[in-house]
Amino acid sequence: MSSSWKARHGQLPESIDPIQLAERGAHLTGTLPLKSMPRMAPGSLAGSGDIFVDLSFERSEGEKIFLMHGILHVHLRVTCQRCLEAMDLELEASPSVILIKAGERLVQNDSDVDVLVVDKPLSLSALVEDELLLEMPMVPMHDLNQCPAKSYVARDRGVGEKGKNPFAVLGKMKKTR
Ligand SMILES: [Zn+2]
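A: This is the predicted complex of the input protein with zinc ion.
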């Protein structure tokens, strides 16, 4: 993180009305503390850190369509589920969301685009956390070549190829019937 990001730390609002922001074409940039993300923080070995946020809010020309898009980034230190050692995990999300007011309908629905219904001000950190969790791997692991456990994985695979596949036993049982 460069010092310019640190200088802006804390300037992001806690809660936002994304449609209001879109009405005036707002741009939010800065950092949020990882500690403000109760679902993501426990998985981080470091326990602290910053999430980089760069979000633009727009109203499309002529039409009443509100958009939010941008980049979110966090560097996490997590446990590799293969070797149980620490690893770096870079998460980046590029949300692109159509915002609609509660009770209003979207005229044209492009199924590729996410829609967020806004009925009250939203927690910015919860919104950012939601988007980043979508990018989180179910089972974080080193690339196999960089994982200290790679030799064990290769050995296991070798055993399997020599016929210790448990399903081979099932095959035998079928034949004897
Ligand atoms: Zn590993």
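Residues 124-135 form the longest helix (12 residues). The chain has two domains: 3-142, 143-177.
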